[in-house]
Each structure stands twice: as C-alpha cells, then as structure tokens.
Amino acid sequence: MKNSDLLKIAKNFETPTYVYDASKIQSQYLRLTNSFKTVKNLRINYAVKALSNISVLKYIKKLGAGIDTVSIQEVILGLKSGFNPEKIIYTPNGVSIQEIEKVAEMGVNINIDNLSILEQFGSQNPDIPICIRINPHVMAGGNNKISVGHIDSKFGISIHQIPLLLRIIQNTNIKVNGIHMHTGSDILDIEVFIHAAEILFETASKFKDLEFIDFGSGFKVPYFPGDNETNIEELGKKLSKRFNEFCLEYGKDLTLAFEPGKFLVSEAGSFLCSVNSIKQTTSTVFAQVDSGFNHFVRPMMYGSNHDIINISNPNDKERFYSVVGYICETDTFANNKRISTIREGDVLCFKNAGAYCFTMASNYNSRYKPSEILFLNNKSIEIRKRETIEDILKNQIEINI
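Now predict its structure.
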C-alpha cells in the first residue's frame, strides 16, 4: 500500500484505525506454500488468535487455508466464516474437559496437551480421533514470553512422559491421528526448528496410524528495515527433504501441517494514529498520539520494535522523538526514534501491526476500540466499526442506588 492510500483511509475513517493489505496476506501465503511445494500433502492452518476479524478469516479461507483455534469462541468464529469443521484444528491449553467435549461435538480436529485431560477424554470418547501436542524441550523464540517449548513451559506433553502417554492411549483405545508441537514465536535460526522437528519425528514414529504431523509455526518476520527474518525458503528445502524421507520410513504419505499467524498477517497490517501534541522537555521531544497500549500493547508487553513512519510528512529532516500515547500510565511506543519531522495533526503509521495487535486491544481508560479496514482490490472496506459509548455500556447493568 502507498502512503497516499493510508492517508486517504485516515481521512475517510479517522484515527486510530487498523488497516490490513489483503495482497500482502496472499503473497505471504504463496511464499510459504511455494517453499514446501515438494511435499505431497501440505496443510496451512492460519492461527486465528493473531487476527480474528471474520472478514479476514473469510479471505484466508478463499486462499485455501484451514485454521488453528485455541478457544471454543475461535472455533465458532471459524464456522461462521464458512470453514468446514475438518479444516479446523482446536489446540487449547488449560481449558475444561467440558469445553473440549463441546468442541468435539462440532466435528473439528481436537489437539490435546495434557495427560489428565487425554485420559478423561479418551475414556469417554474413544471413537473420536485426536492429535497430541508434545513439548520438545527446546528453548526457542524471540522473547521469553513467547517461548513455549522449553522444559518449564505449561504447553504440551513432555517428551519424557511418552511412555505414560502411550499407556493412556493403550488403556483408552483412543486413536491418535496427529502429532503436534509449537516451540515459540520469532524463531530466526532454522537449525533450532530442524532440531525440534527431529524430536517430533522420533515421537511420531511411536504412533502407527498418523495422518498428519503439525510443526506449529513461529517464523520471524522483519519489524523494521534491515531486520532479520526466518529464511522460509531454506527451511522449506531442508524440512521438506527430511519430511519426505520420514514418510518413506513411516510407510505412508503423511500431511505436513503448519499453523502460521504472524507470518501471514503481521506485515500486512498498519496502525494509523494522529499526533495530538508535541511536548518538549529538557531532554526529550514527545510526539503524543491519539492511542495507547489499550490499542497497541506489543511494544510495552514484548518490547517489540515497530517501524514508525510520518506518512503526512515523510521526506522532511529526521529528528529524534519518543512516541507516546494518551493513557494515564507509561505507554511508550518508541524511545528517541528517528522520524521525519512531526507536526501536530500529522498521521503516524506503525508497521507490522497485523498480528497480536487489535486482538489484544482493550477498553482501558474507557477508550473505544478502533476501527479495522481491509484494503482489497484497491478498495478500502470497513470490516469493523469504531466503538461508541453504547458499546462500552452495552453489558453493564445499572442499579438503583
């Protein structure tokens, strides 16, 4: 998308607002599928938690993907978006057996990462095939908050518990049709991914009726010009070769599955906000914008470094600014960042705002959640309206005092 397109959106739909470029989602999807084109059976399950707008889900469905869900609500969103149940995998963590059984009734693929839950579910539902999520005990990811495959992680069944896992499967007679892992997000070193994959292959060899192996995702995307990213093409060559070899060893063609979220939608997203004021202190120039961590929490929560562009004045002299929000706590998007001269009223664009941005938004300070725009076929389509005070009050119950 061009700056002129974004400025037009800011004018027509006001700020703050999220904008998603459909063509970028498509190009990332094709990049991933082309990298694994030598695999006979490939399944891409988009991770709904990254960006769950129903119009985005419908677009991703049109590309040919399935979806990865982590809650019954995401499953319902997927079904309402038109996905067939068999194209949905449900990978919860820490939910009740009652929720898992409700989802199973919907006909979607069930992925279990808890021995106790597996025994309960298998005892009651031996005829429903399930996938097993293992913990490979591999430390991977760009931040300890998004590293989920290490030994102390709450996710997955430990590889050291495989004998107990096999005993439960034997006792319940449940069918296991898939093996799954997810080691973390922002994985840059593909050798770490290959190492974890070998652990997954070793585990998969212990199950005789598998239909697929799910390698999760966690591919790193670039957050600013010159930033590193996962070499998905090299990973495709190495992992495809090893996967095809494993299928020969296993004796049947299995499906290789991934569940990318950030990889598909992160770079497609732009977050637009307007500058309320410029505040000069003795040491810092603050650009204060009409947003805060209620809309865009990643820099505060994960320390993520998003590129920020002044699309109203992109070619002026660069100066150092600390970009901050309007929340009553410290909500700093960037410290002393070089940005083209900012004036009050300018529109700033935060890049890489497609994943884990709107989905983590809140109404803190009773602020409204922003609108969402899909840029599709050179048209700007509103896919979520900006909230109003009626939305804030909708589920509140006023009592007489």
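DSSP finds twelve helices and 18 strands in the chain.
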